[in-house]
Write the structure tokens for this entry.
Amino acid sequence: MAIATERKNPYSVFNFTVECKDRSFEGGFSEVSGLDTEQGVIEYRTGEEETVMHKLPGLRKHANLVLKRGIVGKLGLMKWREEVSSGEVEKARSDVTVHLCNEKHEKVVTWTIRNAWPVKWVGPSLAASKNETAVETLELAHEGIKMETQGQTG
């Protein structure tokens, strides 16, 4: 990964790529969302303290990753979803990487989504009166996000 130098302006959100370790996606994605992770909180109090609530870190939670793209006439995303429906979840699990790129199309931030598998596919909303791109959406459950940037891992 290219080492980014210190910048004054933040990166733009429109310059990104999506890759999947064990699959090839025909065409790029127009939108990625769900790069979220949060820590649950366990609250407890002891019987000796009437007004104090203690807090401890609980389980980590990860939002589903949502990928959107224009339909390109290929069945790759639907076939991936059907692997899960037919009970082949372990075969369907794959690492997905999202790369944010700079103006020179160099990868500057990478999110690795571990053991992702499709939980939902949504086809386009069709309407004869609209002039829009037909879009499909794939939602992926996963087991965690790792972020790498400027030679650092988090």
Q: What stands out?
A: DSSP finds two helices and ten strands in the chain. Residues 76-85 form the longest helix (10 residues). The domain at 16-153 is CATH 2.30.110.20 (Pnp Oxidase; Chain A).
